[in-house]
Hints:
Blueprint: E1 4-14, E2 20-34, E3 37-45, E4 52-59, E5 63-69, E6 74-79, E7 83-90, E8 93-108, E9 112-123, E10 126-139
Antiparallel strand pairs: 1-2, 1-10, 2-3, 3-4, 4-5, 5-6, 7-8, 8-9, 9-10
Amino acid sequence: MTKDVLVKISGLQFAGEEDNDSIEVITAGTYYKKNNKHYVLYDEVMEGSTEITKNVIKIGTDSMEVTRKGPASVHMVFEKDKKNVSYYRTPFGNLLIGIDAKSIQVDESDLDINVKVNYGLEINYEHVAECHITVDVKSKEAKDFKL
């Protein structure tokens, strides 16, 4: 895997029968591997803001951590069959979030890493949605590398 990568993050929340919400982010990032963990770093500007949010995704063989630092900050840990709790700090106040990962699938090759996570999301101890997130990291040497 090269240092320069393309990062695609897509997610879907199932909050009710009619209330499904999807997101997709595609951006350039930086990759490195340390202690058998994959690290992906990228910057993001949130809609309606000019401030930069720094993002770090740490991928293990059966886990993923997402750390965001900026106007909204959070450290989310996804571990299969384990609930992790963290504060999601926003300009409007803090929310206590719970991540209950049901499944994590990590596939890696020399040119890309793909992570799929299904999890339950709680806010202030109340279940709000079933969610699915996919993180696809491609080396700039991959044939389908495009910005």
